[in-house]
Design brief:
Layout: E1 7-9, H1 18-35, E2 39-42, E3 45-56, E4 60-68, H2 77-87, E5 93-100, E6 104-106, H3 110-119, E7 127-129, E8 135-137, H4 138-141
Parallel strand pairs: 5-7
Antiparallel strand pairs: 1-4, 2-3, 3-4, 3-5, 5-6, 7-8
């Protein structure tokens, strides 16, 4: 199991042939699942109930977990993964996946969608991996986005 915020290098072109795409998608989902797992910080605060993994244009995978604190002071797993990516001075996301406890894949919330888009406008074209083997471009989850017009 990798520690939160870890990075690994993909050894394939994630958007080349179908086999490579499936392998990249599987590795991204597995990276997110590897860091998912809720644990208590205090009696009513927790972390890790949602994890995320981001695949960058350079082929790196960055992961993050959520932190749930009082008064909205926590943050989402996708934002944690974005922060890890930015530490490596990367901005271009090819794909993102969010996983909740129990391994259920879900779409990033609005704040996370916006964060990914604002980090690099190219990210509007990144694949958001959803459950049931579906994926959609981020721009489909942010219709008529203001960055798309710039």
């Amino acid at each position: 199991m990798r520690p939160q915020g870890s990075r690994s290098q993909l050894k394939c072109d994630p958007f080349g042939d179908t086999k490579a795409m499936n392998e990249a998608r599987s590795r991204l989902i597995e990276a997110a699942k590897a860091v998912c797992g809720a644990f208590r910080l205090r009696e009513d605060f927790s972390a890790g109930s949602v994890s995320a993994a981001i695949l960058t244009a350079k082929g790196n995978i960055y992961t993050g977990i959520c932190i749930d604190l009082a008064c909205g002071l926590g943050f989402c797993a996708e934002v944690a993964a974005v922060a890890e990516m930015l530490k490596a001075r990367e901005t271009h996301v090819l794909a993102v996946v969010a996983v909740s406890n129990g391994g259920v894949l879900g779409a990033p919330c609005g704040r996370c969608r916006e964060t990914i888009a604002q980090v690099d406008p190219q990210n509007l074209d990144c694949a958001v991996i959803l459950g049931d083997g579906r994926e959609v471009p981020l721009r489909d989850l942010l219709p008529e986005h203001w960055l798309a017009e710039q």
